[in-house]
Amino acid sequence: LLDKHYDFVSSQDKWVKRWREKNVYHSMPDNRDVYSIVIPPPNVTDILHLGHALNNTVQDILVRYYRNTGMNAEWLPGTDHAGIATQVIVEKKLAAEGKNKDSIGRDEFIREVWEYVENRKDTILKQLEGIGASCDWDRKKFTLDNDLSETISTVFKKLYDDGYIYKGTYIVNWCPRCHTAISDEEVDYESRKGKLYYIKYPIKDSSEYIIVATTRPETMLGDTAIAINPNDEKKKHLIGKIVILPLLDREIPIIADKHVDMEFGTGFVKVTPAHDPNDFEIGKRHDLEEILIMDNSAVINENGKQYQGLSREDARKRIIDDLEKSELIEKIEDHENSVGTCYRCKTTIEPYLSEQWFVKMKDLAKPALEASLNGDLSFYPARWKGVYDHWLKNINDWCISRQLWWGHRIPIYYCNKCSNEFVSVKNPEKCPKCNSTQIKQDDNVLDTWFSSWLWPFSTLGWLDNTEEFKYYYPTNVIVSASEILFFWISRMVIAGLHFTGELPFKDIYIHGTVRDENGRKMSKSLGNGIDPLDISKKYGVDALRFSLIYLSGQGKDPNINKSTFELGRNFANKIWNAIRFIVMKTDNVKVPKNVEPKDIFDIWILNRLDEIIENAEKNLSKYRFYDYVNDLYEFFWHDFCDWYLEIVKIKKSGFDIALFVMNRYMNILNPIMPFISEEINELIGSKELIHERVIEKTGLKLHNTENEINIFKSSITAIRNLIADTGFKKIDILINNKSSFLEKHGDLIKALCKCESINFVKEKPIKAIPSIFNEGMIFIRAKNIENIDDILQEYSKELKNINMQIDKTEKTLGNRQFMEKAKKEVIDAMKEKGKMFYDKKKRILEIIGSLK
User: Backbone phi, then psi, for 798, in 5-degree steps?
Assistant: First the structure.
C-alpha cells in the first residue's frame, strides 16, 4: 500500500544519485537529430537563487522534452570566472588576514584566487543538479580552462591583426575601489538626494561674473572651458571672453557648443574633459586641454594644487567652504541626481580619462543586426527584438581591458629593446622582431564578457574543429534574463557570425525577473529574497519548478512569496493520490502496451491525452511555458481526476486505461516535474524516461466525443450547482434535454450527483427550481419539496442580508475619498465582491419565483 503523501525527499535523493551514477545525460554525436543548449554560465562565486532556478528550469524543460521525443539532446554546463566579482571577494578575504594584493604580489594573489575558485567552482552546478537540471556534467566548462583560454587569445589575435582592436585614451567608468574600468552595463544607477551649487566665475578684466551650476564642484579643478549654446541670444556676446577659474586662478575661455542645454541651471556649463564623457567630446571638438585631477583611487592629485591628497568627498567640502569664504557661491539648492555605482562593490563611479584597449564594434555588429532585421534571429517575447535592434544600431566601441589581476591576461607583449608591440597566443620567449628576451606582457586582463561572447562555440571545440563542434553547433536557443541581452547575447551573435559564419542560436528566449509579492525585484539589499534550496526542502523540487513556471507567462515577471509553492506541492500530492487510488483498485499494476477503449468516456480521455501531447509540442516550440504547464494542470486535475477517475470509480472498470494514461502523462510531465514522474513510472513498471522515445501520441484513431462529453459534464455541473444553491439533501432531479445520450447514462449521472432519482421529461415542469446547462435544463419539482414556506422564509432572510451588503458596497464605491486613496487591486476586489452579491441576489430571486 502506498503512503498517503508523496515522499519527495527520498525520491529526489534516489533519482539524483541514480542519474549521476548512470551518467544518463551524457551525449555523444550520432545519426539522430540534435538539440543543443549551452548554459548561461553562472559566476563561480554564485550560489543558487530563484533567478537561477527559473532560468535553468526553462532550459531543462526544453532539453528533457526534446530528449524524450527521441532527439540527441546536449545541455552543456559551466561557470564563469567573474573577474571583478571574484577578485573583490578574495581581496576582502586578504584584508581580513591583514594583507592586500599589492603586498603579496601578482603571482601569489592569483594562486590565492585559484585556491578559492577550486573550492567554489562546482558549488552552484551541484545545486542545479539537485533541482533536476539534466546537464551533460562530463562536458562542464570553466571560462579559464586551457582550451577556452587558447580560443580567447586566438580570437584576440585575429581581431588585432584585422585592425578591430586598438588602444586609446577615452573617458571610462572607473571604480576607485576596484581600480578598474567597467562597462556601461556594469554600472548600477541609483537616485540620491544631493545639491546643485551655483558658482561665480569672474570674467577677466571685468567686475562681472558668470554663474555656473554644478552637482560636482570638486571637478572644477579640471575645468578647461565654459560652454554656452550658440543659439542662446542672451549669452552669445560672451563667446571668446576669458573667465578666471575660482580658487586656482587659471584662465579658461568661454566657447559655444550645441551640446549645452539652455534650460539646465544657468545655461553656462563648466567643461571638464578628463572627468565627464560629454565634456570629453566637447573638448575634442574644441581642442581643449584634458586635465586629470584625480588618481585611480579618486584622490586629488598634483593638478588640484592646494587640494592634493584629499578624497573627492573631502575636496568637495573644502572647495565649497573656500568658495563661500571668497563669496563665490551664489546659492545652493537641493537636487535629486542619478548616481552610478560599481555593480560589485557599490562604490560611486568616477568618469575617468584612461588609456584602454577597445574593439571597433560598428562593422562587426552589422551582420548581427541584419540577422534580426531579416528574420533569421527570433525573439521570444517579440518585443525584445526592438531593444536588440536599437542597441546594435547605436553600438559604441567596446572597452575590453580591465585593471585587474584575475582573468584572461591580454595577450599583448612589449619588447623593451626595440619597442615592438605584438600579440602571441602562446607565451613567447623572445621578440619576433629583434629576438630579444626582454619582453613584458600587458598588465591588463580582458573584460569577462570577452570570454563569454565566445561561449557557444569555444566550449564545443571550435578551435580544433572537433566532431562535437560540427554536430552540436549551432545551438538551438539561448535562455536568459533581459539585463544581459546587450552585453552578452548580442555579442554572442556578433562573435558567432564573425568567427564561425553561423548564428550561435536562432532563438532568443528572455524570461521574466523574479519579484516579490509587492512587485519588487528580489535582492539581498532589500532582504526579500527566497532561497530555492529552502523551498525544495519544504515543498519539493517539483513543486519549486512547477510553481515558478506556472507563474511565468512568456517573459512575464513572476510575483513570488513562500506560499506560492503550495500550488506545486498540492499538484504533486494530487498526482500521487491519483496513482495511489489506481494501484489500490488494480491487481496487476503494470502499464498495458495497448488499450482498447470500451465506452465513450475511455475514448474521450484518450483523445484529451493526445490533445495535450500535441499542444505541448506547439507550446514549447513557441516558448509558451505557462500554456504548457497549465494544459498539464487542467488536464490532470480536472479531466482526469475530477471526471474520468470518478467515472471509473463508479463503473468499476477502465483502470487499464487509467494506468495507460498515467504512463503517457508522466512522459509529458517529466520535463517540468522529473522526480515524481520517474517515481510513478517506475512504480507502474515503465522504463526510465531518459534515452527513450517516450513522448508519443496514443496512436489510436478515435472519433470525436467532445460534444457529448460537454453535454454530460454540463448537466452534472448544473445539478451540483442546484444542490448547492438550494442546500437540499435528498432530491429528485428532472432533466429536460433533447439528446438521448444523457438518458443512456442516467444511472451514472445519479451516482455522480448523489441524487435520489433522475427522470427525463419532454416538457418543462410547472413550479420547479431550474438550472440551465448545455442544451437543456435541470429542475427540482416544487411539489416534491417539503416545508416550502420555511424555505421561502429562509431565502427572504438571505435576500435581505444580501441587499444590505449590496448597499454597503455601493456606498463604498461611491465614496470619492476611498476611490482616490485606495489601491487599484482593493477597488477591483470591491467591485468583484459587488458583482458576486448581485449574481447571488439574481439567483435567489429566480428560486423564490420558481417556488411560489
Answer: -65, -40
Q: Report the 10 Å Cβ neighbour count for 389.
A: 16
Q: What is the 3-state secondary structure (H, E, C) of 787-825?
A: CHHHHHHHHHHHHHHHHHHHHHHHHHHCCHHHHHHCCHH
Buried b (16+ CB within 10 A) or exposed e, 505-514: bbbbbbbbbb
The predicted structure's pLDDT at residue 788: 65
H or E stretch at 193: strand 187-202
Cα(72)–Cα(56) distance, integer angstroms:
19
CA distance 581 to 751: 19
Best CA proximity match to 505, nearest among 468, 480, 484: 480
What is the per-residue pLDDT for 692? 64
Pairing of strands 732-737, 757-761: parallel
Asked if 94 and 100 count as a contact pair (C-beta separation under 8 A), the reply is yes
Q: Output the pLDDT for position 816.
A: 86
pLDDT under 70 in the chain at which residues?
1, 523-526, 687-692, 729, 738-739, 767, 774-775, 781-788, 850-852
**CB-based contact 319:307 (threshold 8 Å):** yes
**pLDDT value at residue 785:** 63
Nearest to 319 by CA among 211, 201, 212, 216: 216
Q: How far is C-alpha 106 from the chain's CA centre?
A: 37
What one-letter code names the amino acid at 795? Y
User: Would you call 230 exposed, middle or buried from its count of C-beta atoms within 10 A (0-12, 13-18, 19+)?
Assistant: middle
- Bridge partners (DSSP) listed for residue 193: 336
Alpha helices in 79-218 (DSSP H): 83-96, 101-104, 106-120, 123-130, 146-161
Q: How many CB atoms lie within 10 A of CB 437?
A: 11
pTM of the model: 0.86
